[in-house]
Amino acid sequence: MALSILYLVFDLLLGVTAFSPEPRVTWELSEVNLTHFHEPEVFNYSVLLLSEDENVLYVGAREAIFAVNSLDISEKQHELYWKASEDQKNECAKKGKSKQTECFNYVRVLQPLNKDVLYVCGTNAFQPTCDHLNLLPFKLAGRNEDGKGRSPFDPMQSYTSVMIDGELYSGTSFTFLGNEPIIFRQSQQNQLRTEYSVLWLNDPNFVSADVIRHSQNMPKGYDDDKVYFFFTEVSVEFDFVGKVMIPRVARVCKGDQGGLRILQKKWTTFLKATLLCRMPEWNYIFNVVNDVFILKSPNLKEPLIYGVFTAQLNNIGVSAVCAYNMSSVEEVFAKGKYMQSATVEQSDTKWVRYNGEIPKPRPGACINSFDRAMNFNSSLSLPDKTLQFVKDHPLMYDSVTPLGNKPQLVKRDVNYTQIVVDRVKALDGNTYNVMFIGTDEGTLHKAISSEHGMHIIEEIKLFPVSEPIQTLLLSSKEEQRYVYAGSNSGVMQSPVAFCEKYSTCVDCVLARDPYCAWSVYRLTCVNILQEEFSIWDTIQHINGDATSCFGQFIDNVMVAHHKVNLGGTVELKCSPKANLASISWKLENQHLNLENPNYHPLKDSLLIFNVKKEDTGAYYCLSEEKWLHNIIFSHVIVKHVVELQRPLHTTTSPNSPATQREGNSMTLKLSPVVTEGSTTQIASTQIVVTTPTEETEPTSVSWMSVAFSPETRSTDLKFHVEKTSYLTKSNDSSLFLVLFLLFFVLFCCVFAYNCYQGFLPTPCLKFRSTLVPNKPATDFSDSEQGLKETLVEQSNAQNQNGEQLKPSQDTGYETEADYGNGSIPHQDESQKTEDNHNKDKPFDVIYDIKYADSDAEVD
Ligand SMILES: *[C@@H]1O[C@H](CO)[C@@H](O)[C@H](O)[C@H]1NC(C)=O
Ligand SMILES: *[C@@H]1O[C@H](CO)[C@@H](O)[C@H](O)[C@H]1NC(C)=O
Ligand SMILES: *[C@@H]1O[C@H](CO)[C@@H](O)[C@H](O)[C@H]1NC(C)=O
Ligand SMILES: *[C@@H]1O[C@H](CO)[C@@H](O)[C@H](O)[C@H]1NC(C)=O
Ligand SMILES: *[C@@H]1O[C@H](CO)[C@@H](O)[C@H](O)[C@H]1NC(C)=O
């Protein structure tokens, strides 16, 4: 109970920390120019395949396959309906499946076989079928191959596939019931599959598969190409009350031919390892992988693996992106320890590190030139010992740790489902990896992670309704890059950037978008991929430093004219596009004192009551964004001109709307509140630099502003130095501070209480034991914290009785300590720390705690 409160406090803290960046800008579907593909009566657009040479995007949907122009997907080129027959549908319904939702042919595999043929598979009303799709003409060959192992039977089950040199590698389920998972290679001579065993695959949810050509740039036969599969499965090594999910990477070698006696027609190179993704500060573990993208690029030293993760109990909806370098994955498979199951008397399977002798050649390794030199020419000639070992030990003990040992991005209140990553060379010469991440609500987040921290450049609402993005694809053409997203309702094509939407230099630079730069000559924000730009005529700083925008003053600013009666009310509208910006107001060149009771600032407007003569003039609404804590960049987003209505001069009645032409601007009058206007060229950009000081004295704020009037086209430079309180902007931060203090105090109380009760691990317990010397530690000490920790940390738990463990006779395998009647006797903390010195014992035992009734003990 107490622990769940503690957990909640953690969650709250998690929310207020800077771990959850807000997208700087949110684009609604109506604001951006996206292209859409959808056929009436066709749903579930779940498979996409791009042919960049031909500019064709192939779309696999329910009972249909389309070919569309990849530069404009609304342009359909070919269509093919591939339906399950009426007999098949009836048979499917007879087996208890739904004719309205399940007994259809859902396309699940769409892979290129060669230039003219695609390999396609579908669920086909629970009778998976594969076929060849000839592209010219766009017709099926009618081969009707059995699709078992390539497409699932059930459309709700997971699937992934990759075509490598004419052989299809797939991960899916093999049976009607969907209870037999399989990683399968379809090939004429060398059909291979996984062993049907929970050690190999335990209820996996496949998310992705890809090949890494390790053999390239190597002498022939030196190393083999490797195929990686990514999935979340039920862990066998963590044995709790409920199922614990765990994200994995598995690998097989392309040259695998199966074993001769052992592992006949099975993979001899199947190994898997845990992908670690967690926030070390909070011990918050993301243990479900939803999608993986392998970033390969000729100018990358090695491929990078990007995965999107959520937590199993994602009640608060936190998602993360973790990146791994390929070499760290390879290292685990090539040099890591194996995991070993050991059965103890309670018939519980425990998992330990295998410390015994490893047969040679190394089990699960690809055959390389070294093995060939030893006369192991193929997996068929491998010794039985090696094959038996890999059959029993497919899981690695070591986990794959992410780059920087922490996520690239953590975001609250969102469930990420898909990811693709693009590489962009910015004008500073650095190359940035830009992540495009799809959510379960049909939006796309575009983010970068650099030494300046995580930053979500923009959020794009791709679909009119909230629905999960099922698949994402990126075109990597030099100039015309697009992201394609498939969902149940259709396919969307979005450009990778919306540079032209940033109307001012400050806005363009603050976007921190590697694709965008401000053109000094054109005075627009341009996409650097589409044309040649030199660093001399463009401004781009990925760190968001907009100081060079000083001097770039021509902005397109909306001007609105208002005519108000004396004593009337006027509403001045202003909504900044940037979610991170706040607004401030100026009347002519003076900051508006919003304390004045006649001013009523709202979220996206300012109301002025009882308008007097001195309230007339030009009001500027400034969008202010903080940069590096002490610099505020602001730029005018709208100008409102408020004038007093000249009484009796107009013929219109005061309450009826009227328009009036004034020079080049059109004014819409709505008395007493008047808004609307037209755009003219005026300019004003300013940079506020606040110098932070230790004293609480008001610090000086200097700002410079430049006004550029369209009529005269002459610049009018004014420099002001003002005394302004450093604390003026902290009105709402004091509320935040109070709230924070409140939570902090609450947290301290809970922490202290838990510490006192001994629910928290060692450092606190040491502290507690000095204060409360005689309180025995409870058995509960690790259960929930432990659940979070032990998922990935194979702690070197000691035999809890402090006894030396006896080596098991001759197996060389580690075994679990015998815990008598199944409970772990408690142990004093001081003893625990002492025991840590006995690290050299021959056993590493997996921490395994089972307390079905642990809550009862606390309450
Ligand atoms: C949208 O983009 C298409 C092609 O890129 C272009 O032809 C069209 O004019 C654009 N529409 C708008 C409203 O910008
Ligand atoms: C297909 O799409 C419909 C809605 O358009 C959805 O209800 C259904 O779950 C989808 N089926 C699969 C297998 O994705
Ligand atoms: C392996 O191949 C080499 C030459 O490629 C051959 O001399 C040798 O006999 C082969 N060994 C086996 C066990 O097939
Ligand atoms: C790969 O990642 C690991 C772990 O973060 C790191 O130690 C190693 O240096 C990285 N290798 C390369 C080539 O970047
Ligand atoms: C994320 O998914 C979980 C479980 O599917 C759901 O309960 C939660 O509401 C979702 N959160 C968001 C922000 O979509």
Automatic annotation (TrEMBL):
Membrane-spanning intervals of the chain: 735-756
GO CC annotation terms, alphabetical: extracellular space; plasma membrane
Sema domain mapped to chain residues: 24-496
Biased segments, Polar residues type: 793-812
Composition-biased stretches (Basic and acidic residues): 826-843
Subcellular compartments: Membrane
Presence of the UniProt keyword Protein transport in the record: no
Keywords: Disulfide bond, Glycoprotein, Immunoglobulin domain, Membrane, Signal, Transmembrane, Transmembrane helix
Protein's UniProt keywords contain Transmembrane helix: yes
Example GO molecular function: chemorepellent activity
Residue segments, region Disordered: 793-846
Signal peptide feature range: 1-18
Domain of life of the source: Eukaryota
GO biological process: axon guidance; negative regulation of transcription by RNA polymerase II; neural crest cell migration; ossification involved in bone maturation; positive regulation of cell migration; semaphorin-plexin signaling pathway
Domain Ig-like residues, every copy: 567-621
InterPro entries: Ig-like_dom, Ig-like_dom_sf, Ig-like_fold, Ig_sub, Ig_sub2, Immunoglobulin_dom, Plexin_repeat, PSI
Record-stated family: Belongs to the semaphorin family.
Protein name: Semaphorin-4D isoform X2
Organism: Microcaecilia unicolor
Gene: SEMA4D
